[in-house]
Amino acid sequence: MIIGVGIDIVKTERMEYWLSNKKLLERFFHSEEIALAFSREKAAAQTLSARFAAKEAFGKALGTGLAHIVLKDILVLNNENGKPYVLLHETARNAFEESGANMVHISLSHERENAVAVIVLERV
Fold first, then answer.
1. Is there a catalytic annotation at residue 60?
2. pLDDT below 70 — which residues of the chain?
């Protein structure tokens, strides 16, 4: 059963500015996400944009927005094949459990100027 669906789009130009501001990055991204982005060198802004879009899409899928959720409690990583997945901690985990969902599906895409993310919350 689908609990919620969220989608968001972020301009990569926004993240290009954030890359030069360590405090801003650390406020919104987990250290693993930051390390992943910097490992992708020229694609760092696209990587962060897609992950930020995923965090926003998660709030939309919850139907509550991101109030009371620390954004770095939502980690967007990739498995060994490159498929993205979501890890939830503390505030994000609590909101997720309250939603009744027990599975998160994610899709990310980006071009030079924009990144988009779709989140589907499901109860199986």
1. yes
2. none
